[in-house]
């Protein structure tokens, strides 16, 4: 049993457990799929740990994507030198980005822009601080969550970003996370169709005599599709730790489960029912109850209820389960699950001798 921890009796529960060798394997597989480490902007919102960022740096990955300023700061603290915050920063976050630039002047920080109003706001704030704001134009090619539509106004916005005194446009950010078909050929077909107008936009940019933009496309589901585009940069994140949700759906991506939840049986309140110390606070609960966790060392069970600190399971072989038993589970969605923990136990050769801080889960580290 690859997941069995020999000193599990020393570990509190519920706990996040990271399998270091498997993380390394997943990093190497990402690089193999991309063709080179240079094509990756790995999204750190999945792992949120400086030590994982350092592992990626050691493997040759030099560019990173993140979701928050705290994640960007965590990545900088770990040694990352090229960091894209994949949000359009508004309000006081623009000033926080300035402070981040001032604290780490040798690190490239960029953010996303999809509107003229926020472009003007960034330009004004960065002009006041005598800095240039590095930006990417966020393109909406169908997900309808953020980004500018590919319409007759998007080229004007690109030209505005190119001509603003205190902005520097580096390229396009195209996220198509809504394309999640289980069949790879179908998913690739959808990705390719969604990229047709992006190609036309790129042609229009070049026709204006503007420099050829860098294109960052997709997340984990589209990774294996966009990796086939020679000039596209890819930003998978879940691959580093992997989870049950993508493990079942994305069959062509053979990553290893590298993050588990360790929980213990704390009660057997009724024949056929057991309770574990794994409630909503321990595993991502945004999905229906049948899509939260899959236990590796328990058979013929069903998670039938959860509250904040408890998980209630119906089990067939009730007599075989003892109060105090340790269960190992694969989260259905690892990214928000990691975000529930301040720290993670790290397994090396089936022993835990190290604890890593999930530093990036903070809303604010220093800045």
List keywords for this structure.
9-stranded parallel β-sheet; EC 4.1.2.42; Ala_racemase_N; 9-stranded mixed β-sheet; elongated; Lyase, Ornithine Decarboxylase, Chain A, domain 1; D-ser_dehydrat-like_dom; TIM Barrel; 367 residues; alpha/beta; 29% helix; D-threonine aldolase activity
CATH homologous superfamily grouping of the largest domain? Alanine racemase
- Helix segment tally: 10
Distance between the termini: 43 Å
How many discrete structural domains?
2
The rounded Rg comes to 22 Å
* Sequence stretches where pLDDT stays below 50 over 5 or more residues: none
| Average pLDDT reading | 97
CATH hierarchy, class of the largest domain: Alpha Beta
Strand content: 25-35%
Oligomer class: single chain
Structural class: alpha/beta
Biggest sheet layout: 9 strands, mixed
Q: What is the N-to-C succession of helices and strands? A: EHEHEHEHEHEEHEHEHEHEEEEEEHEE
Beta strand count = 18
What is the CATH T-level topology of the largest domain? TIM Barrel
**Principal-axis shape:** elongated
- DSSP helix fraction: 25-40%
Q: Can you tell me the CATH architecture of the largest domain?
A: Alpha-Beta Barrel
């Amino acid at each position: 049993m690859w997941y069995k921890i020999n000193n599990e009796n020393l570990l509190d529960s519920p706990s996040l457990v990271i399998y270091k060798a498997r993380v390394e394997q997943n990093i190497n597989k990402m690089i193999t799929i991309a063709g080179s480490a240079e094509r990756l902007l790995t999204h750190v919102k999945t792992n949120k740990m400086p030590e994982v960022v350092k592992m990626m740096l050691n493997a040759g990955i030099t560019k990173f994507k993140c979701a928050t300023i705290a994640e960007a700061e965590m990545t900088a603290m770990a040694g990352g030198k090229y960091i894209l915050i994949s949000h359009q920063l508004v309000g006081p976050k623009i000033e926080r980005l300035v402070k981040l630039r001032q604290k780490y002047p040798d690190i490239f920080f960029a953010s996303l822009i999809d509107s003229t109003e926020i472009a003007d706001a960034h330009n004004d704030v960065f002009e006041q601080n005598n800095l240039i704001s590095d930006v990417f134009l966020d393109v909406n090619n169908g997900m309808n969550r953020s980004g500018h539509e590919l319409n007759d106004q998007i080229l004007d916005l690109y030209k505005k970003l190119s001509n603003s005194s205190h902005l520097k446009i580096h390229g396009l950010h195209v996220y198509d996370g809504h394309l999640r078909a289980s069949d790879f050929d179908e998913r690739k077909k959808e990705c390719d169709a969604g990229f047709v107008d992006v190609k036309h936009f790129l042609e229009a940019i070049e026709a204006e005599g503007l420099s050829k933009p860098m294109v960052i496309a997709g997340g984990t589901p589209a990774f294996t599709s966009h990796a086939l585009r020679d000039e596209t940069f890819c930003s998978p994140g879940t691959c580093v730790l992997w989870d049950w949700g993508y493990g079942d759906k994305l069959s062509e991506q053979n990553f290893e489960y590298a993050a588990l939840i360790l929980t213990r049986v704390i009660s057997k309140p009724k024949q056929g029912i057991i309770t574990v110390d794994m409630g909503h606070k321990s595993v991502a609960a945004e999905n229906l109850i049948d899509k939260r966790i899959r236990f590796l060392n328990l058979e013929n069970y069903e998670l039938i209820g959860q509250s904040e600190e408890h998980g209630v399971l119906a089990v067939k072989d009730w007599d075989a389960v003892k109060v105090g038993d340790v269960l190992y589970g694969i989260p259905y969605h690892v990214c928000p699950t990691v975000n529930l923990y301040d720290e993670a136990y790290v397994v090396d050769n089936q022993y835990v001798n190290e604890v890593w801080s999930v530093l990036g889960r903070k809303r604010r580290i220093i800045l």
